[in-house]
Design goal:
- The chain has 481 residues and is an alpha+beta fold.
- The protein folds into three domains: 233 residues, Tumour Suppressor Smad4, CATH 2.60.200.20; 156 residues, P-loop containing nucleotide triphosphate hydrolases (Rossmann fold, 3-Layer(aba) Sandwich), CATH 3.40.50; 41 residues.
- The longest helix is centred in the middle third of the chain and has 14 residues.
- The protein is elongated and about 90 Å long.
C-alpha cells in the first residue's frame, strides 16, 4: 500500500488539520452510488446507480453486463438524475471494465455490502479490500477503471416540475452554478423562488461557497434585470463616512469643493443594491439601513428633503445569522443558504472539471496539456482526496488545490500534490473575533499570515480585525513586510 493509500483511510482528511467523520451527518434518504471518476468515460461523471428500497435480498452488479446473470444477480443501470427528470444511460461501456466488476447487496438502509469480482483491484477509502460494507461518504475505487462515491438522493426524484432553464447534465447553468447534488438543486429552486419576488433578501453561507453567484442569479432573474446591479463590500465602508457612501451628499457638503454624489442608494435606484460581507458592519452601522429597508426613505447629506429609493436590497454574509442586528435581520424577507462543499462532495469532481476547463487567459496554456477533447485528465487519487477533503475555503480553496496539483504534475495527467499528504501543521491558538489590535503579538500575526499563505483578505478575518485597513496599520506597527 502506498503513502497515498494510507493517507486516505476511513476518516483521514487529506490536507486538513482536523479529522472529519464522513458519516456524522448521514442522511435518511436512500443510498446511491455516484460515478466521480472514470478513466475511459469521463463525460459520465455525475451519473449514478440506485439500489431498490427497502432491501429485498437481491444481489446487484455493476459492470458492462446488461442481462441478469445465471445466479440471479441484477445488473444496475446508470442514470442522470435530477429533481424533475431522469435519463437512463445504461451500464459502463469501457472495454477494460469487466462484465461484472462489483457485486452489491443492501444491508439495511444505511450500508451496502460491496464485493469486487472483476479484473484489477478495489480500494475503499484508499484501502485495498476484496469485500466490505460501505456507508455514506465512502469511496469505492476499481483500480485504473472508475471511482464511485456512496451518497444519497431524495426518494421522490423525479417528481417536481422543472424550476430552472435547461442546461447540459454536469455543466454550469446560466448563473455559473455547477452541481447535480440535492444541495445544488435546492439552491437553484430557492433562487428561482426569491428572484420572482421583489423583496429584500439575505444570502448566507461559508466563505468561498459561491454566494455572489447566487446574488447575481437572483438579480438576473428578477424584474430589475435590465438595470445594472450596484455592488459594494460592506466591510470597506468607513465608519465615519457610511452615511455619505450610502446616501450621498449635495455639492459643497460637508466640505467646500466637494462634488455632489448620489450615494449607493441613488446609483441603485430602480435596480438592486448588493452589500457583500454585510455581517461585518457593526450593529450601530447596520441600524443606518433600517429606514431604507422599511420604505426606501433616505436623506442625502446636506439636503433638507427626504428621498425615496426604489431599491431591492440583497446582503451576503458568512457570519452566523445570530450575529446580525435582530431588527436588521427582521427586515430581510427572504434568506438563501449556499451550502459549502463539505455538504455536497459529489459535486466536487464536476466543479474541478469546470474550473480546469475555464482558466484565466494567462494560465490557459498551462492547463491545455491536461485537456483531451475538453476533458481534464485527473488521477483517481486526486479525485478521491478532493472528495474526502474537509474544505474551509470551499470553491475558492478547491481552485487553489487544483492549481497546486497542476503545478506539481509533470506528466500528462493531474495528480495528487505531495503537499496534500504532508503532516498537519502545528496548531497555533487563534485570536478571538474582533480582537483588539494592540493585544496581538507579532508571533500571532506572522503565524496567521503563514497559515493563510500571505493572502491579506484571509489574514484580517482570521485575526478578528474589522477590515484590511486595520491589518495594514497593524503590519506597519509590528514592522512586518
Amino acid at each position: 500500500m502506498t503513502s497515498s493509500d494510507r493517507a486516505l483511510g476511513d476518516t483521514t482528511v487529506v490536507g486538513g488539520d482536523d479529522t472529519l467523520d464522513l458519516n456524522a451527518n448521514a442522511s435518511t434518504d436512500p443510498l446511491v452510488l455516484v460515478l466521480i471518476w472514470s478513466r475511459k468515460e469521463p463525460g459520465r461523471v455525475g451519473e449514478l446507480v440506485r439500489l431498490p428500497h427497502p432491501p429485498d435480498g437481491t444481489v446487484f452488479t455493476i459492470g458492462r453486463a446488461i442481462d441478469p446473470s445465471d445466479d440471479g444477480s441484477v445488473p444496475l443501470q446508470f442514470r442522470r438524475l435530477r429533481p424533475h427528470e431522469q435519463e437512463r444511460t445504461g451500464p459502463l461501456r469501457a472495454a477494460h471494465v469487466s462484465r461484472v466488476q462489483l457485486r452489491l447487496e443492501l444491508r439495511g438502509h444505511r450500508s451496502i455490502e460491496v464485493e469486487h469480482v472483476g479484473r484489477g483491484g478495489m480500494r475503499v477509502n484508499g484501502r485495498e479490500l476484496q469485500r466490505t460494507l460501505v456507508r455514506q461518504g465512502d469511496t469505492i475505487e476499481v483500480v485504473n477503471r472508475f471511482v464511485l462515491l456512496c451518497t444519497t438522493r431524495p426518494p421522490d426524484w423525479p417528481s417536481r416540475a422543472a424550476c430552472y432553464e435547461d442546461f447540459p447534465f454536469g455543466e454550469a447553468d446560466a448563473a455559473g452554478i455547477v452541481g447535480e447534488s440535492p444541495c445544488a438543486w435546492a439552491l437553484r429552486e430557492r433562487i428561482a423562488f426569491v428572484a420572482a419576488r421583489d423583496e429584500h433578501s439575505l444570502v448566507f453561507g461559508p466563505s468561498g461557497a459561491g454566494k455572489e453567484l447566487a446574488v447575481r442569479a437572483i438579480h438576473d432573474r428578477s424584474s430589475r434585470k435590465g438595470a445594472r446591479m450596484v455592488s459594494r463590500n460592506a466591510s470597506t465602508l468607513p465608519e465615519g463616512l457610511i452615511d455619505a457612501e450610502l446616501f450621498g451628499n449635495i455639492r459643497n457638503y460637508p466640505n467646500p469643493g466637494m462634488p455632489a454624489r448620489p450615494g449607493l442608494l441613488g446609483e441603485a435606484h430602480g435596480s438592486t443594491l448588493y452589500l457583500d460581507e454585510v455581517g461585518e458592519l457593526p450593529h450601530a452601522l447596520q441600524a443606518h439601513l433600517l429606514r431604507v429597508l422599511d420604505n426606501g426613505e433616505y436623506q442625502r447629506l446636506g439636503e433638507a428633503r427626504p428621498r425615496v429609493a426604489d431599491v431591492r436590497f440583497i446582503g451576503a454574509t458568512n457570519r452566523n445569522l445570530g450575529d446580525l442586528k435582530h431588527d436588521f435581520l427582521g427586515r430581510v424577507t427572504h434568506r438563501v443558504r449556499v451550502s459549502g462543499l463539505n455538504e455536497r462532495p459529489d459535486d466536487v469532481p464536476l466543479l474541478a472539471r469546470h474550473l480546469l476547463r475555464a482558466p484565466e487567459p494567462a494560465t490557459r496554456k498551462v492547463v491545455e496539456r491536461f485537456l483531451v477533447r475538453g476533458e481534464p485528465l485527473l488521477s483517481p487519487h486526486l479525485i478521491v482526496a478532493l472528495t474526502r477533503h474537509r474544505f474551509r475555503g470551499h470553491v475558492r480553496e478547491l481552485a487553489t488545490l487544483l492549481w497546486r496539483a497542476v503545478e506539481s504534475s509533470p506528466a500528462d495527467y493531474i495528480d495528487l500534490p505531495p503537499t496534500l499528504l504532508s503532516p498537519p501543521p502545528v496548531s497555533v491558538p487563534e485570536p478571538p473575533r474582533l480582537a483588539d489590535p494592540s493585544a496581538l503579538t507579532r508571533e500571532q500575526v506572522v503565524a496567521v499570515m503563514r497559515r493563510c499563505n500571505g493572502v491579506k483578505e484571509k489574514v484580517w478575518r482570521e485575526l478578528g480585525l474589522r477590515n484590511r485597513y486595520q491589518l495594514k496599520r497593524l503590519l506597519r506597527k509590528l514592522e512586518i513586510a
